[in-house]
Amino acid sequence: MLSFPPLNLPTPALRLRKSADGRPQVYDELRKRFVTLTAEEWVRQHFVAFLVAERGYPQGLLANEIGINVGGVSRRCDTVLYAREGGMPRLIVEYKAPQVAITEAVFTQVQSYNSVLRADYLIVSNGLQHFCCRIDYVNHRVEFLSEIPRYEDL
């Protein structure tokens, strides 16, 4: 199996295997299937487990790899949290591999997704650093939060 660096997240119990052609795979609890294990997927699986186990996010309201259309181009949001009532997006998470720096370009990417989804919260994580902001649509402001909010605080 591939070796990935320790992350600044709790270590979940992941189901790992090799595909028929020898590629490492991890079971994605949200997609209900095995997916190719990459460095970015390693971060995603740890972060989703953190949201569910440590922050109380209902697993049934989370979805991975959500297709959207941004300016006529098909894109995929890494993880989206939907509202219990009405099913509207509440939070978008964008993941990067641990060796990828979190830059302004990463925030620009997730903001472009949010121009379509209009979620209240945006999170960016490379597994080592995590940034979360709340969007105030009324006053046209972005507030960076000191920690990832618990589900009941959204």
Provide an overview of this structure.
Helix content is 19%, strand content 36%. With 154 residues, the protein is α+β, with helices and mostly antiparallel strands. The chain has one domain: tt1808, chain A (Alpha-Beta Complex). The strands form two sheets. Strands 4-5-6-7-8-9 form a six-stranded mixed sheet, with helices on both faces. A three-stranded antiparallel sheet has the order 1-2-3, with helices on one face. Helix 2 links the parallel strand 6 and strand 7. It is globular, with a radius of gyration of 15 Å. The termini are far apart. The relative contact order is 0.15. The model has no long low-confidence stretch (mean pLDDT 95).
Provide the CATH top-level class: Alpha Beta
- Total domain units: 1
Task: List unreliable stretches of 5+ residues.
Answer: none
Beta-strand residue fraction? 35-45%
Rough shape? Answer: globular
Topology (elements, then pairings):
Blueprint: E1 16-18, E2 24-28, E3 33-36, H1 39-53, E4 62-70, E5 73-82, E6 89-95, H2 104-117, E7 121-125, E8 130-136, E9 141-145
Parallel strand pairs: 6-7
Antiparallel strand pairs: 1-2, 2-3, 4-5, 5-6, 7-8, 8-9
Index terms:
single chain, 154 residues, alpha+beta, tt1808, chain A, 6-stranded mixed sheet, 3-stranded antiparallel sheet, 2 helices, 9 strands, globular
